[in-house]
Structures
1.
Amino acid sequence: MKKILIINGHPNSESFNLAIAEAYKKGALQSQASVETITIADLKFNPNLQFGYQKRTELEPDLIESWQKIKNADHLVWIHPVWWGGLPAITKGFIDRLFLPGMAFQYRENSVWWDKLLKGKTAHIITTLDQPSWYYRLFSARPSVNQLKKTTLEFCGVKPVKVSYIGIVKTADEKLRKKWLEKIYNFGLKNK
């Protein structure tokens, strides 16, 4: 049985991103997968990595529980909006606080190389946009995807990482939103 973790990175837990997370979860459960969820907005933690990697900041209980879910999962589904080209601050803070040396990766002594500690996991990034996805890819160079996919997940060994864009959300009517949710349900059903 595939173990799936859905991470909702929208700061408003009642956003359309919640409907996306629920649609994916419904499909994944229909496929008999094991499903856990994290709604970052509901966690109690300081998103500021105050000392960088110079001094360890103790993890709050919600982060300890979240890390256990990440470690146990085979497939990570990241759902977030794109704001100013990037991730919401709370999502970035979640990553900063959890994807740490010794947990997600490990620098090698006297080397520029590192060990990827999350090998064997796959991921799917589902990101919502208020612009056409082609514009975000071609003219903005998709910074949120580069950050989450390349310099976080793949850096830590998660591979492959699929990306899906949902948008333009702000102008979408109910019919289009329903179509998107059916698509997301099918991703869950296929554990993609």
2.
Amino acid sequence: MSWEDELGRLMTERGPALVGYGYLLTGDVSAAEDLVQDALVRAFTRRRPHDVVSVEAWVRRILLNLYLDAYRRRRRYDQVVPLLVPEEGRDAQDAAADRADVAAALRHLSPRERACVVLRFYDDLTIAEVAARLGLSTGAVKRYLSDARHRLEPVLGPQPGFATEDVPTISTEVQR
């Protein structure tokens, strides 16, 4: 018996039960049908089973794994999406204007200052990690970040992300 015959026999005899199992997992008939189809593709492209009873159990296990994988992906995506979505009350046009302002302001920085700002605040590296990445001392990175802050503030205004405790200014260093 060919695999096409086995697949046809499985769907004829146990297809509705597999869709029902998928429905119990997803709560949606069309999603359950898609899940069954994905599971069958995965099952019959990897191995050629011979017994319909064992094939059904195998397909059910694949259905469960596919559902759980999709759930984990969705849950992870839901955790990340709020970090990417603009603040409430702001539309996409305001966000695009802000990105353009930041890009224009960064063009006024020296290459080292710009690299330090991007690594520190875009890549979210610590000052020590920025220093290691650029082959600089931590003091030099702090100085570049301080200079960058002073050059960016007139253009962008005071930025809460530029924490003064992370990037000491000359006046705070002298006072210590």
3.
Amino acid sequence: MERMEIPKVEVKAFYHPGNSNVVLKARNILREASELPEFGGTGNEFTPLEYMLASLASCEAFMFSMFAKMLIKKVPQVEIGVEGEFSLGEGLKTLRIIYRVAGVEEDLAHAIINQVKASCPIYNTLKKACEKISEEVVVNPSG
């Protein structure tokens, strides 16, 4: 497979007194991040840690689609669930990933997932930082 270069990514975060959320900007897209009420936020947006785990799940889902098209010429349904445990001052302690795939045989699902894990920049970054990653693959071939 030909190696693709990923363009530089730039994100800015703005905090303004009077708004308990942080405004995020990437390209010309604005989003907000919140914190849970017990940490002084409103809880009305994803927290930074939820964005981090959502980044992993969404990157793997996009890559799953890409590799499925390359390997089997169709895109089966996939749901990727991610759970993380964090510690203040230490970061990510445990990561659990559940892949639920429908509409493809188990061996093909595993082949696609292996390609995703080998290529996903977010997975590989978190893999270097996390001591304990557990993964589960659930396949329903009939869809």
